[in-house]
Amino acid sequence: MSRRSHRDAAPTHNETTSDGRPGTDVAVTRLLWLAGLWLGSRLVAGLLVAPFVDPGAPLSAGSLVVSQIPFWGVTVGGLWWMARREGERLSGFVRWGFAPQDLGVGLVAGFGLHWGVNLLYRVLENAGVSGDPSASARELVNASPGVLGKVVLVVMVAVGAPVVEEMYYRGVAQRTAMQLAEGTSAKSGLRHRWGAVAGLVAVAAFFALSHIATGADLIQLPGLTLVGVVLGGLVWRSGRLGPSIVAHGVFNLCSLLVLWGVSSPLLAG
Question: Which of 163, 161, 233, 246 is nearest to 199 (CA)?
């Protein structure tokens, strides 16, 4: 595909449509590259950190840094390469952007997710579903004592992870899945809306599954899927990552504060 503006591209099956959406083949190719990036980033990061991290040792702030930095680097680098391949800047490709209202929207959505996920697990518990959705996070917090450990966790969990994950999942994967589900028809009608919803939910489920490392983590699926749907809705509505990054960071920070035993009405959900 030549590096010309989407605005000038002909609405063919293989190119982009006149309003900037990719044709079916372009969207499928992008999803395949995203799948390869997802697998490749984990493989490369695993190979790089293997000499420095003991697989049998508890995950700590230090091992989190060692394991996540290479993974994030490969992910962002891969997205940059994909953007260049399609003739876009990385910022435009991932729909990077912030507006003044994103801070307020993100704060409300982040706290709302905290309360909503807690309510969801109370309902599941009352229905007889057992499991501890906070087990892996609690292990990480317990293995990261002291002020330095807390600072590292905040930076990694409430800043770094939201930025990189939103770029990948909501900025590119969700947008592409929604475009593919919508088809190349005009942006109108029930088919378009339901196609967009289907793409959003599919990526939210993928987001949740990608956080599952062991069988014990399966209890996290309902909560993480809800998080993915809400974050996806924020990006769909605004057209930029600002509100979802803030909401993601606030939600993760709330989880850390609860595990640290911080007591506040805002965390009482």
Answer: 233
